[in-house]
Amino acid sequence: MNPFAEKFTKEESWYIEPFFTNLDKNVFAAKYLPSEVLGALASRYSRSTKGVRRLFFDEYIKPILEPNLDGVSKSEIKQAEAMKTELVNFVDYLHKHGGWEAVVNSKRARNFFEKWLAAYGDDSIAQMAGAHIFFENVSQIATKTLEDFRIGFAPLEKSTRYVMFDQKVGGRYLYYLEPDLVKSKFGLEYVKLMNLLFNRYSSSIDPLSKFLRRKFQQEKDQSDRAYTETLKAKACDVLRAYLPAATLTNVGFFGVGQSFEYVITKCLASPLSEIRFLAQDAQKELMKVIPSMVARPTSVRGKVYRKYVQKTEKELEKLVVSYQNEDGPRADPVQLVEYDADAEDRIVAGLLYKYSTTSYQNIKDKVAAMSARQKLSIIKKAVSGREVRQHRLVRAFENTYYKFDIVANFGAYRDLHRHRMLTQERQRFTTELGFDIPPDLVNSKLDKPYIEAAEKVSTFYRKIKKRFPDACQYVVMMGNRIRWYQFENLRELAWEAELRTGPQGHPDYRVVEQEKVRQVNKVHPALVEALKFVDFGEYDLARRESEKRIDRKLGFKTKVTG
């Protein structure tokens, strides 16, 4: 039984059943809904407490069944009635004729895929079709694991900025009951600790919100809606430090068949039971929509690959014990640990190569003989036309790479992890690197309960780490510091840093991105000239200007004073 599953009436179920593989499980796939509809649903999904199936009924079906006809003309009433009749007839047709299988005759397409995938082994065919799948009420650990897969796999996750995590379902907070921990002698302590974190998160909302209202007054050009949403986002940004990795969330993915095969296979090899169960459920649901593309993970070939993954990880973990020395805390959140000494030559040569008729080596030799001033002039010329950050650097800026070793809180990692066109690798989530204390918790005199909770989490983590080296990650708070590296080329660094240092960004990850650029500036100042839109400013209220822009788009009236 799924305690967190959304409930639907018999009528609601009748309308939405044809469009999803199930209505009562946490893992389900969409069935042939238009891409535009799924894109809109996914966008709303990230800022709502509702699941996708509920959103689909409430926002697409219900308005047709129960239109608002106040003050509308007779022709508009007639049009609304016709739309309702058309909807009823269409859904009725799907039920009577075997759903989408009968309507679109996808069996023929599946036979084609099965032939080319199985008989000919042409994996590229599996890049040409995909599916939407949703994982609801899954932990942050599971979400990060699934989002680790970068190529052909696009996620959208419920936000910690726009949604409060103070809800209860069936009398309990939304966190994952890790089976091994719950069944162990630490089970009751685990549950008690999770409840403590959510209780303190919830009890802090009101006093923190009142403090923020005193600290940040409503501006003249700010509507009541914008002001309320801005302060809510600020409160969420501060209080998310309490949330443990066990916190349940929703995440949706669009992926091509080849990616789903790889994701399921790798996840079936996970040491965590939640990940393995989700992989099994995902395969089961995807077999209903793209069966020819997801059968391999449980085949002989898939089992062999899983054994390879498991064996490799175990062997490497044994080896690392002999080579690591524990280092103490460090002041800087970012260390630039690898870069190319000839980076400027590589970039300038790359800029000129496309328009030349000679070899790359010949061009690079010519560039190496240039003065620093000449190289800088070429770099500036290449970026002079950039007027906004969406004007991306040209591909030549991919010719040099940087590796950053980063220590920052889990919440900041969670946001920066979304950048998938780079190489990232994290260590296990831990409490052993300490925790950050949000300044507004200190200023509002709400820091003592948080510090006490963080210390309790750390004590419990150390107690269970040896016996549960993977499951212990579920207790780590978003305020705890973790370590990971990013390996990215200059073009990707520019996109990430210019995006994530914007005024609307969370201060915790803005600091990381600003420091990355400062580190590069120390070794390649000429190249940093290309990063024109990195913002080194400091902002107290991240979403203020963004919400004002939304006001203007929606036509909201701003506050009138005097």
Description of the structure:
This protein has helices spanning 10-16, 35-45, 52-65, 74-96, 100-104, 106-119, 140-147, 179-183, 187-215, 224-239, 257-268, 273-286, 300-320, 343-353, 360-368, 372-383, 410-416, 439-443, 447-464, 490-500, 507-523, 525-528, 544-554; strands at 27-29, 130-139, 153-157, 168-169, 172-173, 248-256, 334-339, 401-409, 423-426, 481-489. It is of the alpha+beta class and 562 residues long. The protein has a domain at 1-66 and 105-160 and 247-324: Alpha-Beta Plaits, CATH 3.30.70.3180. The protein has a four-stranded antiparallel β-sheet, sandwiched between helices. α9 (187-215) packs antiparallel against α19 (447-464) and α14 (343-353) packs across α15. The mean pLDDT is 89.
Radius of gyration, in Å, reads: 26 Å
Name of the CATH class of the domain at 1-66 and 105-160 and 247-324: Alpha Beta
Uncertain runs with pLDDT below 50, 5 residues or more?
A: none
Helical amount? 40-55%
How would you describe the oligomerization state of the chains in this entry? single chain
Q: What is the approximate shape?
A: globular
Quick recap:
With 562 residues, the chain is of the alpha+beta class.
Question: Any descriptors?
Answer:
four-stranded antiparallel β-sheet, 10 strands, 51% helix, alpha+beta, Alpha-Beta Plaits, 562 residues, single chain
Write the layout of secondary structure elements.
Elements: H1 10-16, E1 27-29, H2 35-45, H3 52-65, H4 74-96, H5 100-104, H6 106-119, E2 130-139, H7 140-147, E3 153-157, E4 168-169, E5 172-173, H8 179-183, H9 187-215, H10 224-239, E6 248-256, H11 257-268, H12 273-286, H13 300-320, E7 334-339, H14 343-353, H15 360-368, H16 372-383, E8 401-409, H17 410-416, E9 423-426, H18 439-443, H19 447-464, E10 481-489, H20 490-500, H21 507-523, H22 525-528, H23 544-554
Helix pairs in contact: 9-10, 9-19, 10-23, 11-12, 14-15, 14-16, 20-21
